[in-house]
Amino acid sequence: MDTKLRDRFVALWQTSCPGAELPITFEIGEKSRTREKAKTPKGWRCLICDLARVRKGTSLVFDRTSVTCSGGLFYLGYDTQRSENFRYFLSSGKPGVVEGERYKRSPEIIDEINARHVSLPAEDRCYTFRRWDMLAAEDKPDVVIFFARPEVLSALFTLANFDQADPDGVICPFGSGCSSIIHYPRLEQERDHPRAVLGMFDPSARPCVPVDVLSFAIPMKKFEKMIGSMHESFLITKTWDVQKAKIARSNAVHSS
């Protein structure tokens, strides 16, 4: 990690979105002895809840044993196949077998979703999550993840589209909370022109994030370009000064 880039973004971010939360990152690789391993939950637990500690500055390492949610195991790449009853679980359910979440109308729609899924196996690798300002020279983050409210999302969304004619610099695919910050950004990282991913609309993951907060995940190679554009973008205009005042008001309300 270029520590000068790290520090440059922190300074620019404090100027552009004063008081806004810094992003977290993840890197896929071997296990680290120098960072705390996320504890194995006793029962089902959403990965997004554990990331609250990372957002406060604690670096955590996740491997297969750290995740007890079947969706988390699937979208992190530790499982490549769904359970046989998943098609009913995500849709209308199956009496006497599984209660449906009713996120999709029918099991057949789930079958089509599964047929389109692109697996990204993680096998025995681990995910190291760190807050941006905690990154060290030896770190090589794959994805940068913001948890933000609308005015800050406005900055990120506009900046993600700043240097391209294609209006789709940001995508919002259907999926679990962890798919929107891990799986889909990993897919985008492999593209020549990666897109950012807006997410955290999953009702099952919403209890793990504050009210009014969504996620905005950015492949690192795209984020580096976004940082390079900040000093010449809308962020230096009077238009954005108005939004900065709204960000300050929002921070005051949610910190009280």
Would you spell out the secondary-structure blueprint of this structure?
Layout: H1 3-16, E1 24-29, E2 36-37, H2 47-55, E3 60-62, H3 70-75, H4 86-89, H5 107-116, E4 126-131, E5 143-148, H6 150-160, E6 170-171, H7 177-189, E7 196-199, E8 214-219, H8 220-229, H9 238-255
Number of domain units: 2
Query: Structural class, judged by helices and strands?
Result: alpha+beta
Main β-sheet description: 8 strands, mixed
Mean pLDDT: 94
State the separation between the terminal residues, measured CA to CA: 35 Å
Number of helices: 9
- Give the strand line-up of the largest sheet: 2-3-4-1-5-8-7-6
User: Helicity range of the residues?
Assistant: 25-40%
Structure summary, number of beta strands: 8
- From the spread of the alpha carbons, the general shape counts as globular
Low-confidence stretches: none
Structural overview:
The protein has 256 residues and is α+β, with helices and mostly antiparallel strands. It has helices at 3-16, 47-55, 70-75, 86-89, 107-116, 150-160, 177-189, 220-229, 238-255, and strands at residues 24-29, 36-37, 60-62, 126-131, 143-148, 170-171, 196-199, 214-219. An eight-stranded mixed β-sheet has the order 2-3-4-1-5-8-7-6. The protein folds into two domains: 3-80 and 119-255, no CATH class; 83-111, no CATH class. The chain is 37% helix and 14% strand.
